[in-house]
């Protein structure tokens, strides 16, 4: 999993999948937006989604995590926990290549933010 090309390929496949999902959602919003889902940069897509009231969706969250993972990969920081900076467990990265926290920090985050998380659903 720590092979740069393998990780990059997994993230690219995830990006294609998320772009297809976005296309299905926004094609009804505006005919012009279909091109955006296919050709715009990930950053432009993320900037666009709040404008069409899609910032509170799971897709938006996934795109944000994907963008973070791609940036971390470019910086050589992929696989490090965003909270403690220790290695994220391989099993977590295999399950979700955009994972941002190790299991310990994720549990802590969930405990500290459980009320916020409940209110957002």
TrEMBL record:
<keyword id="KW-0862">Zinc</keyword>
<feature type="domain" description="Zinc finger DksA/TraR C4-type">
    <location>
        <begin position="76"/>
        <end position="109"/>
    </location>
</feature>
<dbReference type="GO" id="GO:0008270">
    <property type="term" value="F:zinc ion binding"/>
</dbReference>
<dbReference type="InterPro" id="IPR000962">
    <property type="entry name" value="Znf_DskA_TraR"/>
</dbReference>
<keyword id="KW-0863">Zinc-finger</keyword>
<dbReference type="Pfam" id="PF01258">
    <property type="entry name" value="zf-dskA_traR"/>
</dbReference>
<keyword id="KW-0479">Metal-binding</keyword>
<protein>
    <submittedName>
        <fullName>TraR/DksA C4-type zinc finger protein</fullName>
    </submittedName>
</protein>
<dbReference type="InterPro" id="IPR020458">
    <property type="entry name" value="Znf_DskA_TraR_CS"/>
</dbReference>
<feature type="zinc finger region" description="dksA C4-type">
    <location>
        <begin position="81"/>
        <end position="105"/>
    </location>
</feature>
